[in-house]
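thought: user wants a sequence for this fold. calling inverse folding tool.
action: design(structure=
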């Protein structure tokens, strides 16, 4: 199948690299983005490293008509959307208009309202189904691999699941005072929201970053402070799996949090436009323009990521605690693809998701989340394409049932 990747950031680079390696599944590859020179740089690098040609194009994916024209011209079977969440719906519309399958790694959110919710994209289900097309949502690491880890745990390791804790650790250091490892605007919109978690039949809400505790990560990473956040995969997992509680945690360094607090306090993380020299600008968009591009962190970042799911429940009448995770090394990722581990851990699953669709393992008309498919073929590819996973059964639950969560939640 011909594949069109949209978005030439860190994630687009890795996905293009991995799709270029999939010679049996991907016949021809095109990388298109707002800035064509970025596509050309990546295509040149892939040709040097793998000897495979990647075509490039300029597109404004906010414009459905531009996207549709590019699709008609290149005639891909699948569009892999690795631009920003704002473009999800215009690209889905273009796919419907031209009869092409769709995949992304982040759910749609309106520019003026930082709400990470699936309902906008789930509303396309019938239209995709009727057209005989598939849309695979959230095929990154989290969401993405974490959804597959949960589906695998539910199908193979538990009779009943009580709690899922998704825990995302970036123990890498780029040496800069403040930078984000993926798009700064999307990253800061995400972490300045109130923390929310699924509690049996409702969402409990806590003040942003107010609930945290220590978690001892494996493979020499050691104990780190993890913070409770809202993250989009909890919405689909709470709908598709029978689970009492789902929480999402992420590590942040003290240095990162101090910078973030200052930026928040002076209003630089706001998306409300202000007038400046006769122009209306959102402070967060300006902040993005002055922060380092995530793709520039590749050569600087050392250390590892560890992202996984800690699942607690019952098997054969006995309590069970199970942990499934991947550890990815920033420098190894950079050596292989020219991008650091955050881009790598997202771009590899995007390419594997594409392969699942192209090879027919996961081809079903409609709009779907990752946990709605059989996990085995995806997990096999993860092991073979640079993100091996490890599963362990733990004697004790290493995250105590925190009092703060019960007290702070509403
Ligand atoms: P970057 O900001 O580095 O890259 C985004 C790219 O999209 C840029 O090249 C940008 O172009 C391009 N782009 C933006 N708007 C448009 C447009 N209107 N038309 C065409 N191209 C456009 O982001 P990342 O690579 O870090 O992240 C990519 C996506 O992956 C994001 O949606 C992010 O939320 C998601 N993600 C998902 C994760 C997961 O685990 N599920 C984890 C990390 C990221 P230009 O260079 O010209 O600005």
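)
observation: tool returned 410 residues.
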């Amino acid at each position: 199948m011909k594949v069109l990747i949209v978005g030439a950031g860190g994630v687009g680079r890795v996905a293009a690299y991995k799709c270029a390696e999939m010679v049996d599944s991907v016949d021809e590859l095109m990388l298109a983005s707002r800035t064509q020179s970025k596509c050309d740089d990546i295509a040149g690098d892939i040709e040097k490293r793998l000897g495979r040609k990647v075509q490039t194009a300029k597109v404004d994916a906010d414009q459905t008509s531009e996207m549709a024209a590019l699709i008609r011209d290149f005639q891909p079977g699948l569009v892999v959307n690795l631009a920003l969440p704002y473009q999800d719906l215009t690209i889905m519309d273009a796919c419907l208009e031209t009869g092409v399958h769709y995949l992304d790694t982040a759910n749609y959110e309106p520019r003026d309202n930082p709400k990470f919710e699936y309902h906008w994209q789930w509303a396309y289900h019938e239209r995709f189904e009727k057209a005989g097309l598939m849309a695979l949502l959230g095929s990154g690491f989290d969401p993405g691999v974490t959804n597959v880890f949960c589906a695998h745990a539910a199908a193979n390791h538990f009779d009943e699941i009580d709690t899922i804790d998704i825990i995302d650790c970036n123990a890498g250091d780029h040496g800069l005072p403040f930078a984000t490892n993926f798009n700064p605007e999307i990253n800061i919109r995400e972490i300045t929201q109130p923390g929310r978690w699924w509690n049996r039949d409702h969402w409990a809400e806590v003040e942003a970053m107010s609930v945290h505790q220590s978690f001892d990560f494996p493979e020499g990473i050691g104990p780190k402070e993890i913070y409770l956040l809202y993250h989009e995969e909890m919405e689909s997992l709470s709908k598709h799996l029978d689970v009492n509680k789902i929480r999402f945690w992420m590590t942040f360094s003290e240095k990162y949090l101090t910078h973030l607090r200052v930026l928040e306090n002076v209003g630089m993380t706001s998306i409300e436009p202000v007038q400046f020299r006769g122009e209306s600008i959102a402070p967060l968009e300006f902040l993005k323009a002055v922060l380092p591009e995530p793709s520039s962190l590749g050569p600087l970042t050392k250390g590892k990521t560890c992202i996984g799911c800690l699942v607690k429940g019952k098997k054969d009448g006995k309590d069970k605690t199970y942990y499934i995770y991947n550890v990815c090394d920033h420098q190894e990722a950079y050596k292989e693809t020219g991008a650091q581990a955050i881009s790598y851990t997202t771009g590899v699953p995007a390419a594997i998701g594409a392969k699942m669709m192209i090879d027919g393992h996961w081809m079903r008309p409609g709009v779907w989340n990752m946990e709605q498919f059989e996990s085995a073929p995806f997990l096999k590819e993860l092991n073979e394409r640079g993100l091996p996973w490890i599963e362990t059964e733990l004697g004790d639950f290493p995250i105590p049932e925190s009092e703060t969560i019960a007290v702070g939640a509403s």
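thought: summarizing for user.
answer: Here is the designed sequence. The pocket of NDP is lined by residues 6-12, 33-35, 38, 59-62, 82-85, 87, 105-106, 138, 140-144, 182-183, 186, 294-295, 342-343, 346 (CB under 6 Å).
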